[in-house]
Design goal:
Elements (H helix, E strand, L loop, with lengths): L6 H20 L6 H12 L5 H8 L3 H13 L3 E6 L2 E9 L1 H22 L4 H19 L14
Antiparallel strand pairs: 1-2
Helix pairs in contact: 1-5, 3-4
């Protein structure tokens, strides 16, 4: 089967639509998107310090620290001394932050499910297969391209 010429454009448009659906589900939150992103990053990386967070966000450490100050002031983040090296301070989402992230994930999933429910079952299945294949292709290491004109002996 030949790939449609506008497949990349169609995927881009679908991704934008998906982001809009997810953002709509998250819009009821009182937290700015950047702070939600920080909490998500930290919940997945329990050993992160301010410098590590700054690298993940591609910002200077002082900006990351100010973000952490705001999250700490709202009770969503704690700074904890690393038990292995007390000079290091780890950033730890609080139980309230983890609850907030779980609620957000559930709302997003319900929003996506609402859209999927308007699609035929067969199309949903095809979409699932395509997304799994896409994820595999995106995470696999591409094989080196060999010029067919160059032959090895």
């Amino acid at each position: 089967m030949e790939r449609p010429a506008d497949l990349a454009a169609a995927i881009d448009a679908a991704a934008q639509t998906l982001v809009a659906v997810l953002d709509s589900a998250a819009s009821r939150h009182r937290l700015p998107p950047t702070q939600l992103r920080v909490l998500t990053l930290l919940s997945d990386r329990p050993e992160t310090n301010v410098n590590g967070l700054a690298e993940l966000l591609d910002v200077v450490p002082s900006s990351a620290s100010r973000l952490c100050d705001r999250l700490e002031a709202t009770g969503l983040l704690r700074r904890v001394a690393d038990p292995r090296d007390r000079r290091e301070v780890r950033l730890v989402p609080t139980a309230a932050a983890l609850t907030l992230l779980e609620e957000l994930a559930q709302r997003r999933q319900r929003a996506v499910q609402s859209v999927l429910d308007r699609m035929p079952t067969r199309t949903q299945h095809d979409l699932l297969l395509a997304l799994v294949a896409f994820a595999r292709a995106a995470t696999s290491v591409p094989e080196p391209q060999v010029d067919p004109a160059v032959r090895t002996a």
